[in-house]
Amino acid sequence: MKFTLKDYQRDAVHDALANLRKARRYWHNESDKSAFSLTAVTGAGKTVMAAAAFEALFHGDDEFNFDADPGAVVIWFSDDPALNEQTRFRLMEASDRINYNDMVVVEHPFSRRKFQAGKIYFLNTQKFGKKSLLVRGFDDKGGLFEAAPDAQLIRCGIPSRTPSKTRI
Fold it and tell me: How far apart, in whole angstroms, are the C-alpha atoms of residue 71 and residue 116?
């Protein structure tokens, strides 16, 4: 980290990593999903705290006694593309272990079958609108293409209403 965490930030990162540790255990032992959130007042340094947690998640952290997760992927989801850009900038500003190439803005065309480990993917609600090219399966020339599983949102946890390998 480029910044020294304040005591309350360190406590919040510790709690977030404890939740990630539990989530990892639930997933590996039970194939059970879990969720948690990090909340704090405006100006408390949520993005700085997130950067510390992401560094530990991807690279491990002796201070927090947290082992790196080689398969970890972070999806940063908001309702505002400008907020995502601000977050990317702040993460790079706060972290000395997360760089520009580790952060991916999901744009059309996005044709990966799955997200790459060790990356932070930025999405916003507009990307999932019914007019969004990201989920409709159209190329830049306006033609149709064979739908890949990610185009049907299976990877994002949203069940598809159309069977696999159909034209959309």
Answer: 8
Q: Which residues of 101-128 are buried (b: 16+ CB within 10 A; e: fewer)?
A: ebbbbbeeebeeeebeebbbbbbbeebe
Of 106, 111, 108, residue with least CA distance to 142? 108
Q: Can you list the residues of the chain whose pLDDT is less than 70?
A: 108-111, 128-168
- In the sheet that 120-124 helps form, which strands lie side by side, from edge to edge? 74-78, 120-124, 103-105
Give residue 158's domain range. Answer: 132-168
Does residue 2 belong to any structural domain of this protein? no
User: Rounded to an integer, what distance in angstroms lies between the CA atom of residue 44 and that of residue 46?
Assistant: 6
**Tokens (6 digits) for 101:** 């190439």
If asked whether residues 114 and 96 sit together in one domain, one would say yes
pTM value > 0.90: no
